[in-house]
Design a protein that fits this description.
Shape: globular
Distance between the termini: 41 Å
Largest sheet: 2 strands, antiparallel
Strand content: under 5%
Structural class: mainly alpha
Mean pLDDT: 85
Number of strands: 2
Low-confidence stretches: 3-14, 344-352, 471-492
Radius of gyration: 23 Å
Length: about 525
């Protein structure tokens, strides 16, 4: 081979990088590294500057989505097949990136006044690092990038859960979260290796093509790989029976991190699940469709039943109820993905049913807004009632009327009742996808679960507007707040107020025009 031919061959292996396409996760990662280095030099009394930098970085990452709104960019493509890429900034990726970066930004606002009890530099670095991985995942179009993004999003989350040093509950929650997640990741990696062995490729679209014609001797290997990969993502979405880590993790984590896991962590899991099922494994729809339908029914039922059992006076019962509610909501989110297995051509494929994933994305957007709002109000109440019991919300309207009204609105949205029109709209949309797909039994299970959930959502809402209950607590009473602590808790928290206001305004705006959500989220991966 001549020198000219060798040079031409080498040039053919060089990939160009579309820096604008990868700007959202890259900017979040760069700001995370800047904070990590700056933390070494910034004096203690100036640590709040790191929080401001983190918020600015997440806002800038969100801003970079605007020039990508056409959804037609891709990078890291094969030189031999330019249409096969590892990173695609399509409309699906952009909507999920908006969700996760917006969720991370609201989490940063919730955390801004609480990092005085946490190592600030480490907290902001871990939060932005996790957000970078979460923003990378929906754009990933090969299994290697998908797994790396998932772990980049998950590993900092373990540390964030256990960041309250010396707190037994925090350490226990982090350990349980870590061990469960590592086990699930190991199972998923085994599945990915089986899929690669059966197809010889890691790119999702290429896997879909080659799974249609797997040699007979590799058929069992491919089926096992599909099943094991789905198990890994079922854990990330907190689908039953892989949900056991949720309540203790949410209770032990700092409250803003519990909010982050409930929204951003769930978005990461569901976007990954959508990519592997609808894009990579459409030919196995007869396997994953029924399996996800059963998981959806089991998840929403267990979540709602456990939420019903929460006692109003139990320590951290408010957080536990939100945790179990999060599990139930995961069941609703699974319904359209299961329905996508039953395509528009009578169930013989997923091309016709792929558009149904727009219902999952729309529901996730609604859930992200109102659930972050509910956690924001919980964080506000926790400033004076650190044990965060449901009974601590009694008479909230008398002391903080705007916070009580906002919390009532968020709970009604989660229940799917007016004036939370966006919650009702999202539930009806998901319900209709099950009916259209011929999953009548799943629609019935969902309807029953929605009725069950009304009880605990309305019960909590009613507590907000009851007459305040007089309590006499000594300084030695568990959960009592000393005068100094109460004074500190009652100091203004502008960032927390902004987070509540933003989520309330967004929820009200979406309730006024709910059809815009479905139109915005109505994306197809084909």
């Amino acid at each position: 081979m001549t020198l000219a031919a060798e040079s031409a061959g080498a040039a053919g292996l060089v990939q160009s990088i579309d820096w604008l396409a990868i700007a959202p996760p890259t900017l979040a990662a760069v700001v995370a590294l800047i904070i990590l280095v700056a933390d070494l030099f910034v004096p203690e009394h100036r640590k709040p500057l790191l929080g401001g930098l983190a918020i600015a970085g997440l806002a800038a990452a969100l801003a970079t989505l605007l020039p990508l709104r056409s959804g037609d960019r891709a990078t890291f493509c094969l030189t031999t097949a330019p249409d096969v890429c590892s990173y695609t900034a399509d409309h699906f990726a952009l909507v999920i990136q908006l969700l996760v970066l917006g969720g991370a930004l609201l989490t940063a606002l919730l955390s801004y006044h609480d990092t005085r009890r946490l190592p600030a530099g480490e907290f902001w670095f871990l939060l932005l690092a996790s957000a970078a991985g979460a923003a990378l995942l929906p754009a990933a179009r090969d299994l290697a990038t998908l797994v790396v993004a998932l772990e980049v999003a998950s590993l900092p989350a373990f540390a964030l859960v256990g960041l309250r040093r010396g707190d037994r509950l925090s350490s226990e929650a982090a350990l349980k979260f870590f061990l469960s997640s590592v086990t699930a990741t190991a199972v998923m990696l085994l599945g990915v290796s089986f899929v690669y062995a059966a197809t010889g490729t890691l790119h999702l679209t290429e896997i879909a093509t080659r799974l249609d014609d797997v040699p007979e001797q590799l058929g069992t290997l491919a089926e096992a790989g599909v099943a094991l990969t789905l198990v890994g993502f079922a854990f990330k979405t907190a689908a039953a029976p892989f949900h056991f880590w949720v309540p203790d993790t949410y209770v032990g984590a700092p409250l803003p991190i519990a909010a982050y896991l409930s929204v951003v962590g769930k978005a990461v899991g569901f976007s990954g699940l959508i990519l592997v099922t609808v894009v990579a494994f459409p030919s196995y729809h007869a396997v994953w469709g029924p399996a996800l339908a059963v998981l959806a029914a089991l998840t929403m039922t267990l979540g709602n039943v456990a939420a019903l059992r929460q006692s109003a006076t139990r320590t951290w019962s408010a957080v536990r109820l939100l945790a179990w509610s999060s599990v139930a909501q995961a069941g609703y989110l699974l319904v359209p993905i299961a329905a996508a297995a039953y395509g528009g051509d009578g169930g013989s494929g997923t091309n016709g049913g792929a558009d149904r994933i727009g219902s999952t994305v729309a529901y996730a957007l609604m859930y992200a807004v109102v659930n972050l709002g509910a956690f924001a109000v919980a964080a506000l109440v926790a400033r004076t009632k650190p044990l965060n019991r449901l009974s601590d919300y009694q008479g909230l309207y008398a002391h903080r009327p705007l916070a009580a009204l906002a919390m009532g609105f968020f709970l009604l949205c989660l229940a799917g009742l007016p004036p939370g029109i966006i919650g009702l709209f999202a539930k009806v949309t998901v319900f209709s996808t099950a009916v259209d797909a011929g999953l009548g039994w799943l629609a019935v299970v969902m309807a029953l679960n929605v009725v069950v959930a009304l009880y605990y959502y309305l019960q909590w809402t009613a507590v907000l507007f009851r007459s305040p209950e007089e309590r006499t607590e000594s300084a030695d009473t568990p959960g009592a707040v000393t005068a100094d602590a109460e004074s500190a808790a009652l100091t203004p928290a502008p960032a927390l107020t902004v987070a509540i206001a933003l989520t309330a305004v967004a929820g009200i705006a979406l309730s006024g025009a709910p059809q815009l959500v479905l139109r915005f989220a109505g994306v197809s991966l084909f």
